[in-house]
């Protein structure tokens, strides 16, 4: 059994009356144009879902063939499909990272080897740390919860014959320019998983997709439950893949970058250690007694994400989501008072 609660996520930290800095969904509600499109699709709910248009939209968005795209009910379904379709002999998960890939592998009966990146190296991925015998490797980019963005060249060093590399790019659209993305590259042995929930405030809708070689997409589709992607999720995929949506996503990413820099600066002024070089819309911090600080922050009205459920971290770590400057100022004042 794993020694961490792999199913603990930021939503468990949130409660009535708390300011949410625990969940990494950027928008509190979907934008008006997306809500309008979703509302317009309500009359179609009597029919079974059809992801044909969504598949074409994603293929066009990334310059891929439609045979290289699988629409999924969020990234979490993609991890379950991979764990169901594959029979790895040596599965490796690079930690600290989002825990659902390992949870899915274990639920599928697979043994999992962990590669733990270290705070001393800023949680930077060193390809030589991954065992040569690994035939299935999961890594996040940018990685949750460390906020580290690994170079695409580093990730490509992990690709080799007989190995499948799965890169979770759930937060890549929150990085300006989507630098270091592998989504547009039809590389043999590479699977890219994407999510739309973080940028567009639709975690409850479950919308994501997989990009991979056609044979791998066929294997995953063969084990995907019929109609697992809802009509509304399919509509969201189409709408959020349009050029105007991508332009807005870029603006949101730039704004999030400025807000993150403001948060990091404020934390530094308080003497709080920010880990690594954050590039995602959240930061990982370390302080003695962080587990108790988290509880005192709750009493002060703020929810942050505990770090000790991530393999490789302990009770001295917290993850803090990036919010606008007014929220950050109030949070920093609360943090200063409860430390």
Descriptive account of the structure:
With 339 residues, the chain is α/β, with parallel strands linked by helices. The chain has helices at 32-40, 52-62, 74-85, 100-107, 152-156, 197-200, 214-223, 231-240, 243-269, 290-299, 325-338, and strands spanning 19-21, 69-72, 91-95, 112-116, 136-140, 164-168, 190-195, 208-211, 273-274, 282-286, 302-306, 317-321. The strands form 2 sheets. It has a 7-stranded mixed sheet, sandwiched between helices. Strands 1-11-12-10-9 form a 5-stranded mixed sheet. It folds into 2 domains: 10-28 and 245-338, Aspartate Aminotransferase, domain 1, CATH 3.90.1150; 32-242, 3-Layer(aba) Sandwich (Aspartate Aminotransferase, domain 2). The protein has 11 helices and 12 strands. The model has no long low-confidence stretch (mean pLDDT 96). Helix 2 runs parallel beside helix 8, helix 3 packs across helix 7 and helix 9 runs parallel beside helix 11 (325-338). Strand 9 (273-274) and strand 10 (282-286) form a beta hairpin.
Percent of residues in helices comes to 25-40%
Instruction: Summarize the helix and strand pattern as letters.
Output: EHHEHEHEEHEEHEHHHEEHEEH
Widest sheet: strand order?
2-8-7-6-5-3-4
By secondary-structure content and strand pairing, the structural class works out as: alpha/beta
What's the number of extended β-strand segments?
12
């Amino acid at each position: 059994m794993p020694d961490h609660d792999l199913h603990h996520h930021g939503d468990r930290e949130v409660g009535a009356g708390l300011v949410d800095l625990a969940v990494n969904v950027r928008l509190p509600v979907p934008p008006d144009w997306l809500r309008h499109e979703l509302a317009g699709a309500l009359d179609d709910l009597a029919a079974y879902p059809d992801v044909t248009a969504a598949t074409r939209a994603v293929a066009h968005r990334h310059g891929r063939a439609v045979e290289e795209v699988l629409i999924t009910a969020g990234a979490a379904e993609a991890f379950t499909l991979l764990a169901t379709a594959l029979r790895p002999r040596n599965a490796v998960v690079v930690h600290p990272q989002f825990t659902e890939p390992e949870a899915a592998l274990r639920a599928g009966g697979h043994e999992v080897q962990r590669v733990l990146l270290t705070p001393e190296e800023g949680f930077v991925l060193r390809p030589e740390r991954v065992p040569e015998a690994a035939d299935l490797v999961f890594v996040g980019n940018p990685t949750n919860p460390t906020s580290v963005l690994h170079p695409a060249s580093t990730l490509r060093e992990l690709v080799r014959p007989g190995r499948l590399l799965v890169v979770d790019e759930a937060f890549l659209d929150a990085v300006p320019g989507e630098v270091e993305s592998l989504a547009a590259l039809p590389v043999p042995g590479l699977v890219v998983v994407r999510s739309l929930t973080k940028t567009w405030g639709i975690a409850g809708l479950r919308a994501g997709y997989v990009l991979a070689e056609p044979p791998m997409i066929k294997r995953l589709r063969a084990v995907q439950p019929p109609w697992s992607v809802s009509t509304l999720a399919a509509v969201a995929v189409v709408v959020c893949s349009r050029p105007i949506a991508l332009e807005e996503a870029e603006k949101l990413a730039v704004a999030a970058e400025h807000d993150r820099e403001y948060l990091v600066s404020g934390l530094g002024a308080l003497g709080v250690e920010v880990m690594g070089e954050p590039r995602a819309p959240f930061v990982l911090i370390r302080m003695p007694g962080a587990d108790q600080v988290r509880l005192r922050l709750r009493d002060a009205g703020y929810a942050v994400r505990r770090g000790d459920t991530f393999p490789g971290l302990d009770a001295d770590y917290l993850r803090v989501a990036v919010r606008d400057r007014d929220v950050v100022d109030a949070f920093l004042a609360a943090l200063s008072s409860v430390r």
